[in-house]
Amino acid sequence: MTETRDTVILGSGCAGLTAAIYSARANLKPLVLEGHEPGGQLSITSLVENFPGWPEGIQGPELIDNMKKQAARFGADFQLAHLNRVELGTHPFRLHTSAGEIVTRTLVIASGASARWLGLPSEQALIGHGVSSCATCDGFFFRDRPIAVIGGGDSAMEEALFLTRFASKVTLLHRRPQFRASKIMLERAMAHPNIEFRTNTVVDEVLGVEEKEVKGLKLRDVVTGMTETLHVDGMFLGIGHEPNAKMFAGQIDLDDEGYVLTQGNIFTTRHGVVVPGVYACGDVQDRRYRQAITAAGTGCMAALEAEKYLEEHGR
Length: 315
Ligand code: NAP
Known about the structure:
- By secondary structure, the chain is of the alpha/beta class.
- The protein folds into two domains: 4-114 and 241-312, FAD/NAD(P)-binding domain, CATH 3.50.50; 117-237, FAD/NAD(P)-binding domain, CATH 3.50.50.60.
- 24% of the residues lie in helices and 30% in strands.
- It has helices at 14-25, 60-73, 121-125, 135-138, 154-163, 183-191, 292-313, and strands at 4-10, 31-33, 47-48, 58-59, 77-79, 83-87, 93-97, 100-109, 113-115, 131-132, 146-150, 169-173, 195-198, 201-207, 216-221, 227-230, 234-237, 241-243, 262-263, 267-270, 273-280.
- Helix 1 (14-25) runs parallel beside helix 2, helix 1 (14-25) packs parallel to helix 7 and helix 5 (154-163) runs parallel beside helix 6.
- The longest helix has 22 residues, at 292-313.
- The chain is elongated and about 65 Å long.
- The model has no long low-confidence stretch (mean pLDDT 95).
- Residues 116, 118, 150-156, 158, 175-176, 180, 239-240, 287 line the site of NADP nicotinamide-adenine-dinucleotide phosphate (NAP).
- It is an enzyme of class 1 (oxidoreductase).
C-alpha cells in the first residue's frame, strides 16, 4: 500500500525549500518533489545581492544549495520527479508523479513560474552570461554598458526603466508596432532619454556564444526583412512569465493568466471556497513581487499553515 505523507512540497525553488525547512523542523518529514527545474529561477541567476544576510551577495545556485542542505539536515526528503496529475477532491490527496503515486495529507504548491524565453539556441547558451530574465537580479552588472530589453508589455517597460539606472543605453526591441504596456508605463519609458525604441524588430541570434559573453544581437526588421547587428553587452527578456500550475486546472482556482488564486497569499480556493490542506506559495501565486525573499516568506507561511492543519486534523 502507498504510504501516506504528512506534507508534500511541490517545487524546490526558494519558496519550496523554505517550506521544507519549516516543515522538517516541525518533524513532518516533508517530501520535496524537485520538479522540471530543480532549484527554480535562482539556480539560473548569478550573484544575488538583495537577499538579506549576505552583505557581499551570494551566487543564486549556492543560495539554493544552502537551503536544500538546511532542509535535508532537518529530515526533508527529496525526489527528482514532477507532477503530472493531482486529485484534490478527496482527502488524503493523490499525486500522480513521474515517479509514481504519492498520497499526502497536506500539499504545498511551490511550483513557481518560468520566464518566457525566445527559444533561440544562442540565447539559451548565454543565460547567465549576459542573457537574463531578471533586471532586479542582474541589472547591476551592466553599469555603463549598452543593453537591450525585449518585449512590449509592462514588464519590458519596467525592466527598461529600471535598467537605465545602470546601463549607458537601453534599446527596447518589440516585434510589433503596438504595445501591450499600460499607457502610463509606455509614456514613462518613451520619455526617458536613455531608452531607444525599435519596433517591428526581432532577434534572430545572440552573438558571443564562443566567447561565453553577449557581444551583440543579430536583428531583423519584420517589415523590410533587413538585418543588422546591434552592439550590446546584455539582453534582458521582458516577455512575461508562465506560472507552472496547468496541472491544477479544475482542482483549485486559477486566475485568467493561470496563476494560482490565493487568499492571504497562501490559501487556495475552489469556486472561491478555501481548500483545506492545500497551500500555494512563491511565484506560482505571485505575479506582482516575484522576489526570492517574498517567495521564502510565503513558503514559510504555507508550511506553518500545513503544520497547523495537521495539528487540528491529526497526522
Ligand atoms: P505581457 O503583457 O503578456 O507582455 C508580453 C510582451 O512580450 C508582449 O508585448 C509580447 O508581444 C511580447 N512577447 C511575448 N512572447 C514573445 C516572443 N516570443 N518574442 C518577442 N516578444 C514576445 O506580459 P508582462 O509584460 O510580463 O505583463 C504581465 C502582466 O503583469 C500584465 O497584466 C501587466 O500589466 C502586469 N505587470 C504590471 C506591472 C506594473 O504595473 N508595474 C509590471 C509588470 C507586469 P505581443 O504584444 O506582440 O504579443
